Amino acid sequence: MPDNHDLSLYLQVADGVVESIRRGVLQAGDRLPSVRHAARNRNVSINTVLAAYRNLEDRGVIEARPQSGYYVRARLPEVNKVVMPVTPVSSPKLEVLDLIDMVFAAQQNPKFTDISLACPVGEEFYPAKKLSRILNQLLRSRPNMIGTYSLPPGSLRLRQQIARRTPLLGMSLSADDIILTHGCLEALQLALRAVTKLGDCVGLESPTYFYMISMVAMLGLNAVEIPTDSQHGISVDAVEALLKEKKIDALMLMPSVQNPLGCSMPIESRQRLAKLINQYQVPMIEDGLYSELQFSGDLLPAVKAFDKDGWVIFCTSFTKTLAADFRIGWMSGGRYAEKLRRLKALSSMSEPTILAETLGQFLTTGGYDHHLRGLRKRYAFQMQEARGLIARYFPQGTRATQPSGGFVLWVELPLNVDGVKLFHAALAEHISLTPGMLFSPNGRYANAFRLSYCPT
Amino acid sequence: MPDNHDLSLYLQVADGVVESIRRGVLQAGDRLPSVRHAARNRNVSINTVLAAYRNLEDRGVIEARPQSGYYVRARLPEVNKVVMPVTPVSSPKLEVLDLIDMVFAAQQNPKFTDISLACPVGEEFYPAKKLSRILNQLLRSRPNMIGTYSLPPGSLRLRQQIARRTPLLGMSLSADDIILTHGCLEALQLALRAVTKLGDCVGLESPTYFYMISMVAMLGLNAVEIPTDSQHGISVDAVEALLKEKKIDALMLMPSVQNPLGCSMPIESRQRLAKLINQYQVPMIEDGLYSELQFSGDLLPAVKAFDKDGWVIFCTSFTKTLAADFRIGWMSGGRYAEKLRRLKALSSMSEPTILAETLGQFLTTGGYDHHLRGLRKRYAFQMQEARGLIARYFPQGTRATQPSGGFVLWVELPLNVDGVKLFHAALAEHISLTPGMLFSPNGRYANAFRLSYCPT
């Protein structure tokens, strides 16, 4: 292993190889230039190339074949397409919450290696120092804040800053449109309560975030699993069929960087989806939690950006990007805005002004975009690392997503693997992962699991 | 007006007079000792007695009669007993929320004199400096906290400290029994969702906290108004009749320092109520928000203290006593504990660890009991002041409660006064108050309003 001085150099060489593979210059099975050749070509020492190749080997990008050299490894196959009947209505079971409780318990046990939590931990991923400084300044400059009852609509500064950023997602909201919530989860929950009544059918991506399924169950609603492609997101054809047949009363979807698949819908699909929703006048709850963690290109516009008559409720939070502990999220309610404002006030009143103002101040002066760029780069790198390790160590036949952002992978193991057994076996080894069946109201995906590649 | 040096002396004299009135030594209409006589008797200057008498006059406790001296004023009559049919079931209207919105808006307008908000503002009422110091220390000693996702059940230290204090209210809960919530409001809301289903009838005190009524409406439940005495609280006879006739599916009550009446149920009534609830197996949600602000004597035990089989869900918060902005409350769910734990996690996950730990640390070392004693004394004093001013300036026939704690008075004006008109007239004068009709699902109490005597 080279010393610190050489660190950036050998990583540069390694990244150059990765870039060549991405561009297709080097393909699966191709032989890499010899160490000596590469060193001469790139004008670096042999040791540097060796370190780079070992790093690529560790990441599962290349493999050494004895007496022969280094070769580009076969890439991980994409996960299977979801095949299912068109309208599998189901009343999800709350018992799966037992399993979720075990996942949560393991996550909090410091003895466990946690690859289940969809949230990074640590200073590298959050601007904790800057936020601390702002919070501390606020405590000093406005000493009465702790003793002042926080009433809706809450911090104007934060709502203004949020509104200012909405064009990045194709929306143009004003501070008055923003309802602050206790994380994205509360926003989703309030939205679901606002647009449904007992027994309604809610269309969900399959697989989808397990808490969405439990929320649907808790509210006495039915879930409708809708086929979702691991690259292009939900099947808009399937949505259209369901709308036409009046089989769904609401939709709750993650069009950008979906959890767990990491897929993002193409713009045309978003436009078509928005049009359908407005045509059939069926409300859609849009979870934009990971939108800002899209790895490359301009951020995709929200479906809400194409929402003519206010049928889309957009929900998101700063929990995954800025301050996990603050649990400050927000929603924009379209035609349900007034109802949601009241539901929020009646459910939990407001968010702590001290935390909201801290975020508002950070968004004003803290360099949020710079911070986001750093996060995206880091997660994109770690995603490749994780995929490499899976390609190297997981059994033949393993498939994995290539997420468009965020920090989770969806991994499908060979069909004979029982995900719940694997979960328990992993727990016994002090490893916490999230079993795939949690992501379907019908217990599909028994051989899959979600893996978080943000180190904790 | 005496200078600062004499301040405590003249207040001592004034308080001595108030004490004599309380004990009945001096009664309404009695003449006070002459200034000269009092000064000699108490060994203070004539100026001090004059200042004391003027203060008592300002507070409406005594009145000067020309050429004759000072007399104890007639005391404010108690508010009227609630007379109503036994089971007035009603689906409360959400339109009253428009009025509540106007109250909230006025509360936030700095141009307004706010006598409507049931929450004090300012450093004198909250240990903001100590809390700031603790928070700041936590930010420094645990820099990763902001970036760490807060999972249920949340801060162990806070839950331990809460549990440690529960014997003061006759309970003996452990840290595991405590579910942290986003203020008392979320606790009440979750409890209501946990124990009811669409169309259920919920028994409420009459009058009761307006948000309880709106919450019942929002969840599609019916309200049953139960007569409540302004001194002894809810009529347990009426509750028993309703239980016997299966007219209520749940109760949501404030046995201690009820909002808005300020009444507290005697211990025997609490025991009887707990017994009835257990006998009829009907869940009761106990709002203990103001329990710790009881003016005198040992704190009354919660109804939960007598709850044999876990039918009582106890809910409270630190919002009114310690840190208004933090919005950290808690609940203990009895037989509904597991359901509530999940409902909380699915509704808004958890509370910010940084705020929970700050409270936990304050409860450990900050002198919470000392702080509470100060609050109680101050509020008791201000209550007498407010009653005095009402006795002096409000129209003949005005009645007001003599609350057992907290910081609100319930004021009944002569029957011909229209409370909503008064509310709007007051708004026009930049005064915000809370109209009485908000406190009844049937729009009773049109001539009453709630007045907060905590200065803001």
UniProtKB/TrEMBL annotation, chains A, B:
The keyword Transcription regulation applies. SUPFAM superfamilies: PLP-dependent transferases, Winged helix' DNA-binding domain. Keywords: Aminotransferase, DNA-binding, Pyridoxal phosphate, Transcription, Transcription regulation, Transferase. Residues 7-75 form the HTH gntR-type domain. SMART domains: HTH_GNTR. GO terms for molecular function: DNA binding; DNA-binding transcription factor activity; pyridoxal phosphate binding; transaminase activity. In the C-terminal section; belongs to the class-I pyridoxal-phosphate-dependent aminotransferase family. This is PLP-dependent aminotransferase family protein. The lineage of its organism: Bacteria, Pseudomonadati, Pseudomonadota, Gammaproteobacteria, Enterobacterales.
